Every structure is written in C-alpha cells, then in structure tokens.
Amino acid sequence: EAGVAQSPRYKIIEKRQSVAFWCNPISGHATLYWYQQILGQGPKLLIQFQNNGVVDDSQLPKDRFSAERLKGVDSTLKIQPAKLEDSAVYLCASSLGASGQYFGPGTRLLVL
Amino acid sequence: KQEVTQIPAALSVPEGENLVLNCSFTDSAIYNLQWFRQDPGKGLTSLLLIQSSQREQTSGRLNASLDKSSGRSTLYIAASQPGDSATYLCASYNNNDMRFGAGTRLTVKP
Question: E strands, A1-112, where?
Fold first, then answer.
C-alpha cells in the first residue's frame, strides 16, 4: 500500500512570496489533515477534511492560509503572503475511520 | 481543550537499557491514543495505537499502556538500540481532534 505523498520536500522563499504544497493521501482514506510543526514542538492541526468538506479549520490563519480538496482525494495548502514565522514543516496525514493517522514525509519550508 | 504533555523533553541512555517515555493528557474522554516516531527531517511513523477500551498494545520491543482514569500513557522500549534514537510523540484523539505532545528526544549511545 502506497503511503501519503507530499511535494515538494523542501522550499525556500522570501517573505511576502506565495507558496503551495501538495498532498496525495492513502487511497480510500476519506479524512485528510494538514499540520504545521515548528521546530521543537508537536504538530498543530491547521485543517481537517472529510472527503471534500472542511471538518475543522479553527487554527488555520485564514488571512494568509488556504486549503482545498476539490475532488475529495488530493489536497493543496497555500500560503499567501508568507511570513518569517511560517517557517516550519508542513505535514499531511490521512485516516480511515478510527484506524489512526498516517503521515507523509512533510514539506520543510524556510521563509527568509 | 485537551492538553498533552510529554516528560522528559530529552533522554539519553546507553545501549541495552530499558526505558519508559511518559505522556499525560488533561481530558480522559479520548477515543484513542497513538505513539509516533519522528526521525530528523522526516515525517511521523506510527508505532502503536491504543483504543480507549484497551489498556496496552505491544509491537516487538515496544509496549504502550493507557490509563484513561489517570490521564496517562507510557511507551516502554526494551533493550534499547542506537537505531531507536529519534523523537517520540504521543497524540490523543477525541471528537475529531488530535492533539500532540511536544515529544521526547531520545538518544541511545552505543
């Protein structure tokens, strides 16, 4: 079974630029999550999708972050414009029911 | 709001030692608790998942226990090896909400 795929693996941008991350969950997993992990901390949930609907986006900074999962499969997370404090690893995870979450390798973002 | 705490933040042990990592959570009404391993620069790898109705799960040298009433979970690693060096995170799941601890950074010295 293929795991959760993410791209790119690394991205360096300057502040005020835009960036987008892509995630393809495990086939058949209805729930998809985007997390932000700042160095030395545990992951923080940004947004959770159930199929193509948003379940929870309470911690998503909506003035600059957006995410979509139009066909209920893969998803994109966008930051526009980026700030220095957005430097982090962005993790995508998927799950099927209560079987636990499976994580992708993450995208490491550095904002200069 | 669920809060998950992991103690210690860092741990260094010699190879071969048995060790325990601790995880505590404030809201005992959890659906499950999951332990993950994270290597530097990598994503999270699921180690063990304990459903709320279970008290422990085992996989190889790893054993995780769950005591909902006291809001605690432990991850026991037997006969530690240098390859076990990583950050270990626990996460509680309830009401569609998964909360992570900050992790314990484990170093096993040869």
Answer: 5-7, 10-13, 19-24, 31-37, 44-50, 53-56, 65-68, 75-79, 88-95, 101-103, 107-111
